[in-house]
Amino acid sequence: MEFHRQLPMTVAPHHPFNLSIFCKRLLSFLFLTLVLLGLSPAPSLATGVYDLPILSPGSKTFLVDQAEAISLANENRLNSDLKKLAQSSGQEARFVVIRRLDFDATIDGFVNDLFERWYPDEASQSNQTLLVLDTLTNSTALRRGETAESLLTDEMVDSLLRETLAVPLKDGAKYNQALIEADKRLGAILAGQPDPGPPALEEISLEGTFTTAEETDDTSATVWVVVLLALATLIPMVTYFWYVGLPGR
Question: Were 141 and a residue from 1, 111, 175, 241 both cysteine, which residue would form a disulfide, CB within 3.0 to 4.6 Å?
């Protein structure tokens, strides 16, 4: 007679699910994620001439806001004003707003390169004025063609950049206000009217209704923090009910 002996089976020890430990690990992971998001280098935001759309005389676009620093209402206003100026006087002025230049570029070199790319010959350059604003350094530069230069003198350009634009930019990086004031002054000069000059300093200091790029960045960061905190609350609850089942079942 044969006897078959059954060997005892080895059962792996059961580790009960510990919700407290799971939550601590999850919160640690989310905290680490937040730290990494804050420390990781942002993608390159530098702008080169070839990163911008190609425009030419007669183009319907008068504002290129690559930095997203201008509100939609003011973008529409600037495009409308500059379009009317082109239709009434034949003088075309365009504004370009960028986040920052390449590390080896200058604002003057950038505006010259862009001007010659958009208007490659003297005939196309004659009635053109191009203003560039870099939001990282708040630096500005202007280039104009031969006919525009007869209306917009070197002294006017210097005053436009150093007063009309520079003052609101230094006073809280008011990009919207800076371009609106530049639009008013350029519109009058290029239309053949007397130069109205820069706005009074007290008038500029009272303006505080525009959202700056810094405020926009702070809002985005707050949204991300709220979303991650909400996930930190919901994920442990969903995981818990996944393991133990819904109440009453």
Answer: 111
Q: Provide the percentage of residues in the chain whose pLDDT is more than 70.
A: 63
Two structure tokens written together for 111: 């505006």
Output the six-digit token pair for 45.
Answer: 């935001």
Distance, CA of 72 to CA of 78 (rounded, Å): 10
Top pLDDT among 123 and 48 is at: 123
Q: Which residue has the tokens 């999850």?
A: 26
Residue 151 CA, chain-centre distance (Å), reads 32
CA gap 183, 121 in Å, rounded: 25
Whole-angstrom distance between the N-terminal and C-terminal Cα of the chain?
Answer: 52
CB neighbour burial string for 200-231, b if at least 16 within 10 angstroms, e if fewer = eeeebeebeebeebeeeeeeeeeeeeeeeeee
- C-alpha distances (whole Å) from 97 to each of 36, 45, 48, 173 are 30, 13, 12, 13
pLDDT at residue 64, as a whole number: 97
Instruction: Calculate Rg over the CA atoms of the chain.
Output: 30
Phi, then psi, of 101 in degrees rounded to 5: -85, 160
Q: State the Cα–Cα distance between residues 118 and 46, nearest whole angstrom.
A: 20
Specify whether the CB–CB gap between 239 and 21 falls below 8 A.
Answer: no
DSSP 249: -
One-letter amino acid of 43:
P
Count of beta carbons in the 10 Å neighbourhood of residue 168 = 25
- pLDDT category at 213 given cuts 50, 70, 90 is very low
